[in-house]
Amino acid sequence: MISQSTEQQHPLWTRRATLWAVAAIVVFWAAAALMWTLTDSVVPWDSKNHFYPMFRYLGAALAQGEWPLWNPYHFSGHPSVADPQSLLFTPTMALFAWLAPEASMQLFDGVVFAHLLLPAFAVLGLFRKRGWHPVGAVAAAMMIVLGGSAAARLQHTGMIFSYSFFLPALLALEIALERKSWKAALAFGLFAGLMALGRDQVAFLCCMVIAAAVVGQAISAEKPLRFALSRLPLLGLAALIIVAMLAIPALLTMQLLADSNRPAISYGVAAMNSMPPSSLVTMLAPNIFGTLNHTYDYWGPMWDTIPEGTYTDRAVNYIFAGTIPVVLILWQGVAKGRLFTRELRFFALVGVFAVIYALGRYTPIFVRLFDHVPGIALYRRPADATFLINVSLAFCAGYCIHRYVVDSGAALAARVRPWAARVRTAAAVVIPAGLVASGLVFSSRVGHLTEASVQVALFAAIASIGLALAIQQTNRAARVTAAAILVAATGGELVWRNAASALNAEPASRYAVYDKLKPADYAGLNVLKRELDERHAKGERPRVEILGLTGAWQNASMVLGIEDTVGYNALRIAEYEKAVGPGENAVELRLRQFPGTFRGYKCNLARLLGLEYLVLDRPADKLPRHFPRLNGATLLYSSDTMWIYRLAPAAPRAYVATRLKPVETEEVLSDEELPEFDRGTEALIDKADVELLDRDYTADASATDQAQPTSKVQILSYKRNSVKLSVTTDRPGVLVLHDLYYPGWDVTVDGEEKTVVKANLLFRGVEVPAGEHQVEFTFRPLSTDNLLTAATDLVTHENGSETVTR
After folding, report:
1. What's the distance, CA 551 to chain centroid?
2. Are 794 and 720 in contact (CB under 8 A)?
3. How far apart are CA 506 and CA 501, in angstroms?
4. How far is residue 118's CA from residue 556's CA, in Å, rounded to a whole number?
5. N or C terminus of the chain: which is more exposed, having fewer CB within 10 Å?
6. How many helices, marked H, and strands, marked E, lie in the chain?
7. d(CA 480, CA 5)
8. For 546-564, how does the pLDDT look when each residue is reduced to its tens digit (9 = 90+)?
9. Domain-by-domain residue ranges, the chain?
C-alpha cells in the first residue's frame, strides 16, 4: 500500500538530483505565479469578494491591537470567530495579516499560491521515501500545484489551505509510523491540525484518506496488531495536538451553525452539487466545453444544459492536470497494469473513491454513504472530491513516469498473461474514447460540436507527439531524457492552460474598490464617508445597505469601515436572515427579500437597525418590482454606476426602555409581523428572558407611574469586540443596544456582571437601575461559560447530528 518500495535500493535521489527537483518546482511555481502579474490579473470571485476583505479586516484589527472575534461591518454583525472562512484560525494568514495588514490583492494571491509549495515539496519527500524517480516526482509536484481543482478552485481560498496541508501531513504520518519518530508524530499532528482547521469538505475528505492510510499501514504490516499497538502512543500524541488545535474553533463553528440559516443539508442539495459524468472528459481535453475561454461562453454541464440541473459550474467540474500525464497513465498505468501494483494501490484506490464521491447522485453508492457514514451528511458539495482526484492523478502519473524510466514495463510484460494484456490495452483505448465521445455528443446537443472537435484534435496531437517520443527510447538514459522533456512540456502546458486562466483570473481593475476606484465611484464613496464621519462625530452610528454594485462591493464594507446590513456569505445568523431577508449576496437583487417584519426601508425594524443610507447600482425607480418604493428618500449622489440615498431618520443605536412587551421571537418570525410598541420608552423582550429580570416592566406594572421617563444614553467607545456606554435614567429599565444578539456577548453594569437579554427581536439588552451607570458589552466567545454552553447545546440539540458546515 504505502509501504517502503523495493526501488529504494536504487541511488536515484542523489543530492544533485534532489536539488534539481527542488529547483524545477520553484521555477515552475514562479513561472505560474508570474502569469497573474504579466496579465495584470488577480484570482477572482470568492477570493476577492469574500476572502480578501476578510483578510483586510483581520489585518486592520491586528494593527489596532484587537483580535477580531466579532465583525460589525458584515450583515449588521457577524461572529468572525465562528466562521471557518474568516482566516482567524489560519496561522499563516494571521501572521501575514499582522505583518502586512494592507497587503495588495496581488500580494494576497501570491501568499495563498505559495501555500501550494508545501504539498509540492511533500511530494518530493513521498517519492524519495519510496525510491521513485525524481523526474516523476517533479511531474507529480507540478500537477499538485496547478492541476485540476488546485488551479480551477483557487478562488476558494480556505479549501486551498486544507489541500495544501494534506500531503505534508501524510508524509509526516508515514515517517512517524515507519520510524516510530516522536518528532514526525508531532509534525503530523501540526499539519493535520492545520488541515482540519479549514473545517471544509476538502479537509474532511483528506482526514478520511489519512485515516485510511493508518489502517492500510497496519493491515499491510507483518503483524498488524503488534504494529498498531506499538504506534498507538505516536498516534495519541498527534491526536492530542489535533484536538487541541481544532476543539475550540470547531465548537464555535458548530455553535454558529446551530443558529444559522444552514442548520442542515438535505440529500437533494448535495445531489445537485454532484459532478456531472460528462465533466470527466476535461481530464483529456480541458477546453472541450469552452471552459478556458475568457469570453465565458461555456457550454458544458450547468443548470440549464443538463435535464436534471446542477449547482456545479465550470470551475468545480474541471479536472485537467496535463495531457502527457494522462497519456502515461493510460499507457503505463492501464495498458501495462501499473495502476494495479502494490506500491501504487493506495493512491489508485483514493482516485477511485474520489471519482465515485465526486459523481455523487450519478452512482448508487453516494446516497448510502450520505445516509450511513458519519460526517458526509455535513457537507453540500460532493464535487469537492475533485481535489483528491488531482492528488491521485499526480501520484499515478508520477509513478508511471518512474516505471517508464526504470524498465519501460518490460519486466512486467513478461509476467502478464496475453489475454490480460489485451484487456488492459483495450481498456486504455476504450476509456478515453468513451470520455471523448460523451463530450462530443454533449457539445453537439448544445450546438458546439465544431469547437469541441478542435479541442479533441488538439488533445490527440499533443498525446501522439508525447507518446511517440516516449515509445522510441530503448535504453534507460534515453528514457530519462525523454521523461525530462515530457515533464518540462507538461509544466509548460499547465502554465499555458491553468495559470491565470479564465477559471482563476480576472483583470485587477474589476476589484477597484480595494485599489483604485473610478473617479465617479470615488466621489460617491467620499460623499458617503463624509456623511458617516459627521454622524459618528455626533455619537451616532447609522448603518448602510450596499446593493447591486459589482462583486467586490459586497464585502468592501469590511475594508472601508462601513456598518453594512447585507454582504456576501453563505453562512448567516438565522433570525437575522428571517427577519431582514438580506440573502446570500448583495449583487443579485432578486436575493434581497422583504419579509413581513421588514416590509420596506421605512419600517420599524429598518429604523431599529439604524439603516439610514442606501447605496445602489441604479436609480430607485429602476429597482425590481418586489422592492419597496423609496418614498421620501433623499438622493445624495448619482453617477452612471452608483446612486446613494439618505433614508428617514432611524432609531438611536441605544436607549432605555422602562416598559417591556414579552414576545415569542420564533412566533414573530414565523408570523412575519413585528408587534407595535413605543420605540422611545418601550421594548420587546423574548419571553424566555423575562424571568432573568429583577423587576416587572410590563405595561400593567408600569401603569401607576404616569410621568414620562427621562433617560440619556451615550456611546463612549465602539470597538469590534466591545461597546461601552454611559447611561443616565430616572427610573429602572432595560438598556437596549441595537447590535445583534448572539451567544458569547457578556455585559457589565458599573463593573458588575449582568445577563444579556434579547430585546426588540434581534438585539441585546441589559437591565439597569435608576441613576448614572457605565455599561460595557464585550464579546467573549472563548470564555469558559460560552464554551461549556456551546458544548452542552451541541450534545443536547435534537438535530445536533444534522448540523452542517461548508
Report:
1. 17
2. no
3. 8
4. 31
5. N
6. 28, 17
7. 20
8. 999 998 999 999 999 999 9
9. 115-506, 527-646, 654-802
